[in-house]
Amino acid sequence: MKQSINIQDNFLNQLRKESIPVTVYLTNGFQIRGLIRGFDNFTIIIDSDGRQQMVYKHAISTFTPQRPVSLMPQATDPASAE
């Protein structure tokens, strides 16, 4: 059975692993700028101005990273795996 691709988890994981600065826009118009430190199905942890904040995903409108995020998995060369 083929696994389905979870774009949200891939996107957040790349932001976290590469420590890409991000602006998080909340549904109330507030903005949080910082680094994603972790996430689960319902929340994200953001380091912002030296403070950690837990934000519920249902309160988030948009993520805007400072640079492009690659969502494509790195292709492995079958010949190099031997």
TrEMBL record:
GO terms for cellular component: cytosol. It comes from the Bacteria. GO terms for molecular function: RNA binding. One of its GO terms (biological process) is regulation of translation, ncRNA-mediated. Residues 9-69 form the Sm domain. Transmembrane segments: none annotated. Keywords: RNA-binding, Stress response. Belongs to the Hfq family. Homohexamer. RNA chaperone that binds small regulatory RNA (sRNAs) and mRNAs to facilitate mRNA translational regulation in response to envelope stress, environmental stress and changes in metabolite concentrations. Also binds with high specificity to tRNAs. This is RNA-binding protein Hfq. The gene is hfq.
